[in-house]
Structures are given as C-alpha cells and as structure tokens.
Amino acid sequence: MSRIRGLNHLTLAVTDLNRSLAFYRDLLGCTLRARWPEGAYLEAGDLWICLALDPAARARPHPDYSHVAFTVAEEDIESLGTRVLQQAESWRENRSEGASIYVLDPDGHRLELHSGSLKTRLAHYRADPDSSVEIFEP
Question: Do residues 5 and 46 both lie within one domain?
C-alpha cells in the first residue's frame, strides 16, 4: 500500500526574511543551509524548513489551534523556553503531557516546543483510566 512516510519539509510564508532567519537560526538554533533573495532553507534535525518571502503573509496568528511542534530534548526545554519567551509571545499555557512551550514566530505562526513523543503521549493516556482517548495498537 502506498502511503506517506513522514514530514518532508515545512514552508512558512514570512514578511521579513532577516527577522525570520534571526528567529529560527539564532533563537531556535536551526542551521542555515541555503539562502536566496526570496527565501532560505534551514535544518532542524531531520526536518528542513523553507522560509519563503511573501509580503502578503498574515501578520497575526490564525485563530484556530493548528500549529507546528518542534522536538526539544528534555534537558534543553527549560533553558530554550526561557530564552525564547524573552523574545517571542506565548499563545497558550501547557495543558498536555510532557513539557511544552507555545510561542508565536515573528509572522504569527503558532509553534510548540515539546520534549515528549507520540510514545510518551500514548503512555500517558494508557495510564489514565478516566481518559476518553481510544488507543490503537499496530
């Protein structure tokens, strides 16, 4: 059966390429791999991020819960979160299993910095007898 295998890359429309590079490279620690007048490629583990210059990009967060979650090592989440929250606005308090920090990037994209995984999330629900979440085993 043909199926997707994972997330290949993430493209974000940005209104100011230099400001977004400073956020993703300098603040979040992504590695800059390529740059051109209208964009840049950054690397974050196995994920590559494309920042695409788009003057029409929205300047405020979209009103729904859609967001991008980045993996952060458990031992780094507190220090990274402290540093990021000095420069980025929080959009939500953590209410889930595992440490999470929810911030807006300079163009209002909703981001989550998370130290858990699908495995830890499912274990959390398995351990909660009152959970209404149904778990499916492979």
Answer: yes
